[in-house]
Amino acid sequence: MTVREELEHQEHKRLNPLAAFADQSKGRLRFEEPREEDVRTCYQRDIDRIVHSKAFRRLIHKTQVFLRPEGDHYRTRMTHTLEVSRIASTITRALGLNEDLAEAIAMGHDLGHTPFGHAGEAALSTCLGKPFRHNEQSLRVVDVLEKDGQGLNLTHEVRLGILGHTGEYWPETLEGQIVRRSDQIAYVNHDIDDAIRAGILTNEDIPNSISAVLGTNHRDRINTLVCDAIFTSREAGAVCLSPSVDKALKDLRAFMFEHVYRNPVAKGEESKAKAMLQRLFEYYIAHPEALPEDFQPQLSFDGMERTVCDYIAGMTDNYAVDKYTEIFIPFGWNVRG
Question: How confident is the model over 45-49, as a mean pLDDT?
Fold first, then answer.
């Protein structure tokens, strides 16, 4: 028995029967012959493929909520991803489900996010004339764009968990559903933390009806939500929150939309970011020869708009600013030059 087979055997001994077992995966987009010397299950391999990808490394320079914040402690897409992964691992472990699958989905769920957060998503939606959805782009990154067009060839369960972390599609595995819930728990709470750091919110601003259920500080809110997800899901045999906690989380999200996500302090620069990405899109549509060499072959089979969209969506905040400066700002006024 190989090391991989031993790990797969151990999963059946220790995990909940409702878990997604590695040796029962529906497989990859392209079949890969198992390697005798491989010491990892298919989901463990997927974690490594994602973490070693270029798209994953770029997350550290992509905005979460605050555009180019001053200070080292604001969240980026990378730190958000790590927080989602830790929350998902805690819930998954407590429910006896497959931590490796949950970690792989969490690590890959935001790979398709644009520069400048949801402002970039809105800009590309305008450019394309249809909604740009980052969960769909995340799937496109792992299926098509990584490894010079080969994609990462991930397992079915990881791919659809990434797609279903938000939006209409619901993941078929409990691990994927846990990541979806963990994403909500993570971003609402760390966005509160960042908003307090930015001086646009205090813990006391959160309505008492919410704090009475979830707690009055970051640690207590996370703990309440995670513990409630564990104990309620155990009783229900499905991933869910208790009615009172679920309502409090929804109320907290609504509060955040009103006071933070649409706050002019947090979002004051968004119109500039959108305009910048829209001008870059228009420029590359008019000058496809200016696209990097590795994007040139894509033009012939994906077309102009899709290729330019993929290029811009993959940019970090800094890279987008640098390309805009290089193309549109005269050298004498280019303070970055």
Answer: 98
CA separation, residue 118 to residues 57, 206, 252, 254 (Å): 19, 23, 19, 17
Q: How many helices (H) and strands (E) does the chain have?
A: 18, 0
pLDDT digits (tens, 9 = 90+) for 96-150: 999 999 999 999 999 999 999 889 999 999 999 999 999 999 999 999 999 999 9
Please provide the DSSP assignment of 78-145 as one string: HHHHHHHHHHHHHHHHHTT--HHHHHHHHHHTTTTPPTTHHHHHHHHHHHHTS---HHHHHHHIIIII
Say if residue 336's pLDDT is above 80: no
Using alpha carbons, select from 252, 257, 197 the residue that is nearest to residue 222.
252
Q: Is pLDDT of 43 > 70?
A: yes
How far is 30 from 316, CA to CA, in rounded Å?
A: 30
Instruction: Report DSSP state, residue 204.
Output: G
Q: What is the pLDDT of residues 223-280, one digit of tens each?
A: 999 999 999 999 999 999 999 999 999 999 999 988 888 777 666 678 889 999 999 9
φ, ψ for residue 63, nearest 5 deg = -65, 145
Which of 15, 150, 191 shows the shortest CA–CA distance to 93?
15
CATH code of the domain made up of 20-27+41-182: 1.10.3210.10
Domain ranges of the chain: 20-27+41-182
**DSSP string over 294-319:** GGHHHHHHH-HHHHHHHHHHT--HHH
Name 2's Cβ contacts closer than 8 Å, sequence gap at least 6. 36, 37, 38, 39
Give how far Cα 131 sits from Cα of 33, 122, 199, 279, Å.
38, 8, 32, 18
Q: Is 76 helix (H, G, I), strand (E, B) or coil?
A: strand
Average pLDDT in the 316-330 region?
Answer: 94
DSSP label of 63? B
Mean model confidence pLDDT for the chain: 93
